[in-house]
Amino acid sequence: MPVLKAPTGSADAPATYKQPSRKGKKAWRKNVDVTEVQDGLEELNEAIIKGGLVNEKPSEELFALDTVGDSSISKRFPKHTSKPLKSDEILAARSVVPAVDSRKRSSSKTTDGIVPAKRLRTNYVTHKELTRLRKVADGHHELTVEFTDDVHDPWATSVVEKQPEVEAVPDIRTEKKKAPKSIAQAPISLAASGKRVPAVVKPTGAFSYNPSFPEYEARLAEESEKAIAAEKKRLAQEEADRLRQEAAARSAAEAEAAEARAQLSEWEEDSEWEGFQSGGEELKVSNKRPERKNPQQRNRIKRRKEEERRLKHEAKTQVKKAQLEEIKKLAKEARERDQSLALIQAEAAGEASDASLEETDDAVRRRQLGKYKVPEKDLELVLPDELEESLRRLKPEGNPLKERYRSLILRGKLEARRKIPFKKQARMKATEKWSYKDFQI
């Protein structure tokens, strides 16, 4: 009977331990070395057959806790087991002095830890004073009064030698504060004419609650012109803001369009380089596989991308320049509009007489005192339909407190301030009490 022998060849997949290149048939998946994976699977199967994986078992199955100990050790080593440990001897030793009780007791000797300041006792007699009293009791007086024949005349004139005067150092705490030099100067008026403004300006007939028709009509026309000029200025400012926003939006749209065109051109050229050619009505896909690009082709693509990047940067720069030009143009138009409006206001103000400026406080000079401007004067004007014939139905206009405050500012006696609605609160600091240290055992 012939003897059966095991095959001489290996059943495992051919091993390729080194793969310097992944090109060719040698780099195919079937030639990859998987012996390490197969060995791991075999070890896992053996561990499962023997009872399971060790790292998946609980600690109770792997370890046992010995709480009794081995009784044979004390028999084999009686010398070592009978001798106690040094730590046990130290703990067993007890002192004769009782331990300090840590309980808290209420006692008068308990203090808060603050050492009181020492004070000299004044309810006892010193040794020096006691010696002096004993000498006095024995008849020995240290100070005795001796009478002489010379009688002092208190009314006699005596020459007293003059001592050189010593310059005393002035005490800063007792020295009187000196007033500044400006307190003696007259306050500077803030009126446009520079003349002094009276504390209470005498109102004209147009401010009356029952004015004459010509004066009331003139004042109404004047206030109407002021309101119209202010409204025109506001509308001009809104128009300038609108034009500025439109220019910004237009420039942003142009920048987006330029960027989109650059991206589109880049996509078209990339599609050509990838092997797709746009042929008019339909796209023809080449059947040939694209070959590897040579260095000349790579350099050509690199130069093309750099040129596209440069063109895109130039387009963005042109858009920014256009935006700057538009902003300069709008700023110039707004400046010219403001100058024309100021000229119109100056001409309207020049028509008024100098006498009216001296008497009223409407015109304020341009350079004011302090950082803040003089508050505007309230418009105290009653419309024609609000004029009342009876004083019983009269509604008072104005605020005396505001008028007094504005008058003081115009006369240069006060500086304009800004109203602060909220007072600055003090910063609170949170700390933790140390009462948790007072514990009991």
TrEMBL record:
Cellular component aspect of the GO annotation: nucleolus; nucleoplasm
Superkingdom to which the source organism belongs: Eukaryota
Annotated segments matching region Disordered: 1-29, 232-320, 347-369
Compositionally biased region (Low complexity): 248-265
Keywords from the named record: Nucleus, Ribosome biogenesis
Basic and acidic residues: compositionally biased ranges: 232-247, 281-294, 304-320
GO MF terms, alphabetically ordered: 5S rRNA binding
GO BP annotations, alphabetical order: ribosomal large subunit assembly; rRNA processing
Composition-biased stretches (Basic residues): 20-29
Record localization: Nucleus, Nucleolus; Nucleus, Nucleoplasm
Record's keyword annotation contains Nucleus: yes
Family: Belongs to the NOP53 family.
Functional summary from the UniProt entry: May play a role in ribosome biogenesis.
Name of the protein in question: Ribosome biogenesis protein NOP53
Species of the source: Apiospora kogelbergensis
